[in-house]
User: Fold AAA family ATPase from Ruficoccus amylovorans.
Amino acid sequence: MNTPLDEALAADIAAELKQLREAVAGVIFGQDRLIGHVTAAMLARGHILLEGLPGLGKTELVKTFSKALQIETSRIQFTPDLLPGDITGNPMLQEVGGQRKFVFEPGPVFTNLLLADEINRASPKTQSALLEAMQEKRVTVMGETHALPTPFLVFATQNPIELEGTYPLPEAQLDRFLFKLEVHHSDVDTLRRIISHRTIGEETTVAPVMDGARLTELSQRTQQVYLPEVVASYIARLVDATAPDHSEMAKDLRYGASPRAAIGLAAAARASALLEGRIHTSTEDVRAMAPAVLGHRIILSYQAKMQGKTPAALVQALLDEVSPEEKALPKSLTAAKIQ
Assistant:
């Protein structure tokens, strides 16, 4: 699918995606922005990390998308004693043709949508079992490589790392997630709707909107959305501005965003445009997606953390200062502004 999208097809796709978001919003109340970001990530074939306190609906959000998309879903509850083989699968000794041989038994990662629940409760070694799966869409066990189904998406949930019994995700693991999205408390009106429509232990019903094959087709269509040179340049300069040796931000950063972040931001911008039925991206699409794409890839120095500075504030400072036009990074972008 190398031909550009036409406006009529883009409008039809946008209407179909709106139907998907509305189906999910009929169960997950008051989270329209979050639902839009999740939809954009799936169009961009990206994995999502959802962070929030227990009970805010992170797992329910994933289950609702699974039902609306009619795709095969597996859930892994991450715990401190979880082993890598519990995710990828293990060779099992079986009788084959009269001989005892090791036969690979696929694990729960062999699915379309993997819910990695409370991922930061497992050890870093176990978390790293997902690295190859998320990047290469395959797993290798005892030297044998096994391809994963299409589509393959990981929706991971995590509690804030300040909670007892959690492990920070390694930087390499974080970089595999296209988006990190925070799930916040609901307001009073939303809570009232939840109380009126939900009962403990009752399974929600969601009208199916599309299937995995259609989701794959739409993700391919997303790649046809035109990315103008000015938008590509804006993405490159935003990502470059996060480098620790850039301007006066060096003392606040241990690591900046990677080239993978730039590729992901371009894909997210295309998805953002298609959600609105547009056949080309704009710098506003980049600005809308940048906090979710860049925030978790920026690693602050210890001193910056002690001063109360945050990656989210850094990204906002970049968006305020780096012009969509081809200009050098303003000298005003200093550590003092990143509060």
